[in-house]
Each structure stands twice: as C-alpha cells, then as structure tokens.
Design brief:
This protein is mainly β and about 375 residues long. It has a 4-stranded antiparallel sheet with strand order 1-24-23-22, with no helix packed on it. GO terms for molecular function: ubiquitin protein ligase activity. This is NHL repeat containing protein.
Amino acid sequence: MLLTTPNLTQSLPTRSPLVELNTVFRGSSGHPFLAPRGVWTINGRLIVSDTGQNRVFIWNRMPTMEYAEPDVVLGQVDAVETGRNAGGSVDADTLQYPSGLWSDGERLIVADAWNHRVLIWNQFPTQHGQVADVVLGQVDFSHNQPNTKGIGASPTERTLNWPYGVTSDGQRLWIADTGNRRVLFYDQIPTESFAAATAVVGQSGFTERDYDSANPIWPYSVKIGPKGQMAVADTQYYRTLLWQDWRTAPQQPADVLIGQADFESNGQNQYGLFPAQQTLSWTYDVHFYGDGLLIADTGNSRILWFDAVPTQHNQPADNLIGHASFATGSENANTRFGTDKQLYWPFSISTDSNQLVIADTGNHRIIIGKLPVPSIDLM
C-alpha cells in the first residue's frame, strides 16, 4: 500500500509547499525499522541505517510502497536478525549502532558509531552481510574500543570515539568524531585500514579533546556544500557551525552560527519556551541543497529551510518542513494524539537531484518526497 499524507511535510501557509507528495516507508514488512538515524540516496538507491536494530539496508530502487524487502542487508545475516555485532564479536561484517552514511554509488561509507569505527566498502555492496574492505579508528576489524585503548584514552590521528557522521566530496573524507569533540579530515578516502587523518577541526592537535565553546562541542554530522562550504551539526550546543570554505576549518572557528547569537550561548531554543524562526533544539543533521540549506531541527520535530546559505550569526530560516508555524515544536498540542500526521524527531536528510528522503526517527520510518528542482549559482 502507498501511504501519502499531505500534512507530514507542511510548510508556512504564506509560501508554496517545499515538499510534494509525502510517501511513508517503513522498511521490511515483517521486521520494519526501529529508530533509523541515517539515510542516503544516490542514483535512485535508498540506503538506511536501521540504527536500533544494528543493520544497514539497501534498496536498489526507491521504494514506492509502505513496505518493501531490501536488496542488501549489512551487519546481519538477513533482515530478521538485529543483535549488536550480529549477536557475537565485532568483525568486518558486523555493526553496532550504525548512523551516518555516504555513497557515490560506487563506494559506501558507514559510521559504525558504537564500535568506534568507520567502515568503507570499496565496491558498492551487492550481497547480504558483505564484509567491509577498510576500517578506520581501529587497528583491525576485531577491535572496537574507544580510541583503541578504552574509555578515558586520549585520541590520536588514527582513533575514533563515537563517530556518528561521515561525508565526502568523492575525493576527500570527513568524519564527525563526536565523542572526541572534533571533525577528522582525510585528504583522500583511505584505502588502507587504521589510516591517519590529515587534519583536525575543533582541537589544537590530534591528542586533545578539550571542551571549548568556540569549537564543536558534540559534532554529530558534517556536510560539504557545492561552493566548498562546510557545515557541522553541533548537537549539544543547539547550533550549526558553518565555514564558508572547508579549507579554513582546521585553523579557525566557524564563520557563521545558526541557532545561536554567539559562541558562548547554548540555550535550547535560545532559552525560549517555544521554538522560533532562528532557534534550534537537539539538531542532528544539516544538508546543502542548491543554493540553500536544510537543517534537521530534531528536538523541534521540524526541518528548517534557508533560501541561501546563511552569512550572519543567528539568521532566521525562510521556511520549514513539518509544521505550519515556526512557533510549533515537538511537545505542542498537535502531538498529543499521536505523531503519524507529522515529523517526529527527524535525524537525517539526503537528496538526489530533487528527491528528498528524511529519517523520521521518532516515528520509525522514512519520508520520501520531492523538492523544487535545485538551482546553484556558482558565481
């Protein structure tokens, strides 16, 4: 059955709707999603981190019905199993709380967060349980301690601690190394395991993990824009950090703050009782689209839309997805009778041309729709 609901992705009534025809997708019919936190679409494929059940699903064609069986399951032997590391020891074919995803259609990269590693498939997976080719953050596939030595160990240029986000421009790789309060940069997508990062964003060196409000506090997602911008969803400070040129990020604080007026401020919805046009609550993802920007304002159960990438601190959003007002959030009256008719804690956003997919995590489903065709002014 195809399930569409016009209210799911409502926008401001004074502007044209941002999303056309919302399709609800729940995954495998016998074993549907449980809190999917990562989503990616490329070349018509849909890739989902079914985080709560420790697996990644791949559909080679975008689903058009409410349920569809996956073409490939990673992290488990089939769509039925759900145990951490497939119920056994960590290995090249297991997952524990997979989160961020990236693919160019030829390679696949998965943030295997609770194994404190990132997995890379050099060829796009075609078989259930296919083993990864490269592991980052660990000396080999059979280890999974934070910073390789366990809780309390200092980070290095080769280690990871709760990496939740990954992204690439097809040549380089960025990892949101969340537990180490930093973003790691690799000048090439590694082809060998336990590779060293090239540079670090948010810390003075590879062995530091200090808490500084001028730097990412809890970087959950990192994305690169079409003009070389870099955006980091900094969850714990309810803000998104934006650099106009990713090359400057290792040397300086962000150029623009979204969600806060200055680097010292860290109020949820800027200490307001309700959300507003320029506030954020528990933001977990950010996504460039054409000349604009989408931000998963997760705690407010909405996605904020900016017509152009912001150039000033605390810039208000131009529109939103999920509510008809900027003043409506997760805990308002329209959620008291259930959340089936709206987004509920959306964690992740991806687009392929004008195809939009949203990990509607709190509702255990994926929302599929169409955005206006993007335009990019490269001048």
